[in-house]
Amino acid sequence: MLEFLDSINHWHWLAFGLALLAMELLGTAGYFLWLGISALIVGVIFTSLPMSWQLQWVSFGVFSLITTWLWWRRQLKADTKDDQSRDLNQKQKQLVGQTLVLEEDIVVGTNRLKLGDTTWSARSETNIEKGNKIIVTKVDGIILSIKLND
């Protein structure tokens, strides 16, 4: 086994990297992409710099961790940015601007309010009598800020 590991050259790493990239084409959602790129990097470095087989595998592991971490950081930022601008499946964003007719009187402070099929905590700065139309102006966690709809 040690003889085989000693006989690995840069062509093996390049072929291994291309094989991993080919496996990525089968739809593995990015898992083999970063491993393939890491193997190609080791192959390119190994063409000009002699390395022991132990250093080759350690380099492959380190490059795999680095490339995967960099991709994860980039993807996390993109997902966070997309989630902030997306309204689909984000109930709190869909509630802002909704109007409804009050079924109970609202007093200054925090009250309970039925909106749709759920009851919410609602905060108002003024007393509002039942039967008036209100509008949801802001959502702070699970508390709706409401005001009289003029």
Outline the secondary-structure elements:
Layout: H1 2-6, H2 10-24, H3 31-48, H4 53-85, H5 91-95, E1 99-101, E2 109-115, E3 118-124, E4 133-140, E5 143-148
Parallel strand pairs: 3-5
Antiparallel strand pairs: 1-4, 2-3, 4-5
Beta strand count: 5
Report the average pLDDT across residues. 88
Name the helix and strand elements from N-terminus to C-terminus, one letter apiece.
HHHHHEEEEE
Characterize the overall form. rod-shaped
Give the strand content: 15-25%
Give the count of helical stretches. Answer: 5
User: What order do the strands of the largest sheet run in, or round the barrel if closed?
Assistant: 1-4-5-3-2
Unreliable spans: none
Describe this entry's structure for a reader.
It is a single chain. The protein is α+β, with helices and mostly antiparallel strands and 150 residues long. 51% of the residues lie in helices and 21% in strands. It has five helices and five strands, in the order αααααβββββ. The chain has helices at 2-6, 10-24, 31-48, 53-85, 91-95, and strands at 99-101, 109-115, 118-124, 133-140, 143-148. The chain has a five-stranded mixed sheet. Helix 2 packs antiparallel against helix 3 (31-48). The longest helix is centred in the middle third of the chain and has 33 residues, at 53-85. The radius of gyration is 29 Å and the shape is rod-shaped. The N and C termini lie far apart (82 Å).
